[in-house]
């Protein structure tokens, strides 16, 4: 039995945000219902960067994403983050496919944030503010556009050229490149920076705002002033992982926040175990660290589409 | 930059036991000298089987092996164990190759046992006894033949047909299919069974024997009566992993053995921090659980050989 080899271009051609959002939402539901399995990530930490092994299984799907973070790569003309995913049959362990997961990672991060916004943002949200105009910002906008009628995209980046580049990449939307304060005054706010000290202050945040805190995904990273968390309804993708490496990790380490203050997981809200937003004036925060069930859900989507399409396959094992 | 795709046949054609033994011994040395990194395996446990993510790095090499164990596979005509390895540049994280690691796993397990025998068996060892004649038994014999003058290979298996098949696969050696007791009366003994209760009893073991205990690689598995361990010089590949899933795991769980009774790691002996066998009458045991540095060392060997040879490559990421 051959293994499909799905390269970057092939995967890019198959990624569809509508389908991705549906698959990721279902994955959180399955996982919350005990139909998914996800052990903790394994970190391989080296001098120039690190690697993470992210295994997970969902009904009919299993696999591992192997993703690196090498901050000095741009100087060498390489992306900071590259990911490969091995996709297996959970019944036999057979490796059905090996695929690029760099774009899967970007799509699922955008999709998950948009799903969080669906349950946590005000229904009448029409403006999205993006803090940090790097690679992840684009999929944040594209995913939210699937679920919201976006009338304005506000973009802030320390580097104006990055903000301009992002604006040019979404010509279908009305965009405004603006100061941090102005971008923060949006219905939905997505923070996608590599910050290690708070960028967003409490004074920036209006009542009723929903924040997707995406950037913090490792120990020591944080984007929000801890006081922003204190009065807010905080939802996490995975409590254990968020406490260790998400937006709440630094405030917890400093004794300014405790995991017990977290309102819920995203899965519990999707499953209806807990309500999402009920108060139009509440500040809600989704602390996204990225979980492997998201990647495996999309890998299944891609494999199911690719398997009958004559893609490159080899007798790998 | 393209990623090499090295399928089963390609990898098989490149595996050379002499080179594998040399690379694995160097890997243990590097790891013991602090030049390697190996986090704990991540286990994904499902109903029909399990998967393990095994990341590691050595000088100039990094990657992860993703390997399944699905015991019911033979009924479906599939191997129980299949492995894929993603091999990366540690400096940039770039995935240089994706390769079959099923045969790498068998080769490195044999190689590591033979290296252990080199330091722990009597120099004048000429007979090898193999308990369990499955897939791993073949590479045990081949690896030991590199380092010892094997005058007799004794084979025991509960299934005589398996023993006969193994004997036929090594026609270059004098073999004898025999009872457990007779196979156990060998200079070097390799236990390669899936046993969950002791197969080898204290009464089977003569003074001066070296045992490579290979089979136990998960909680609840054991091949040796705990009393065999008590009087012996026990060496492990990795103390943390052996205590959890190696030959010593069940005796430790039952309070019959403690990790402090372990004499040494294999790496410490190779590095000369501790002597190997000094007493010709001692019973020595190498408790092999299998560590990812072994796989990465061989992956480097294969990649370095393959990269200039025009193998299949794709723009994977």
List strands and helices in order, with pairings.
2 copies of one chain form a homodimer.
Chain A: E1 3-6, H1 8-14, H2 17-32, E2 42-45, E3 50-58, E4 61-69, E5 81-88, E6 95-100, H3 102-120, E7 127-131, H4 135-147, E8 152-156, H5 160-169, E9 175-177, H6 180-184, E10 188-191, E11 196-200, E12 210-213, E13 222-224, H7 226-230, E14 233-236, H8 239-245, H9 249-253, E15 264-265, H10 266-270, E16 284-287, H11 292-306, E17 313-314
Parallel strand pairs in A: 1-6, 7-8, 7-10, 8-9, 10-12, 11-13, 12-16, 14-15, 14-16
Antiparallel strand pairs in A: 1-17, 2-3, 3-4, 4-5, 5-6
Helix pairs in contact in A: 2-3, 2-11, 3-4, 3-11
In CATH's first tier, which class of the largest domain in chain A applies?
Alpha Beta
CATH architecture of the largest domain in chain A: 3-Layer(aba) Sandwich
Euclidean distance between termini CA atoms of chain A: 9 Å
- Count of helix runs of chain A: 11
Question: How confident overall, as mean pLDDT of chain A?
Answer: 96
Q: State the low-pLDDT regions of chain A, or none.
A: none
Q: Could you estimate the helical fraction of the residues of chain A in percent?
A: 25-40%
The helix-and-strand class of chain A reads alpha/beta
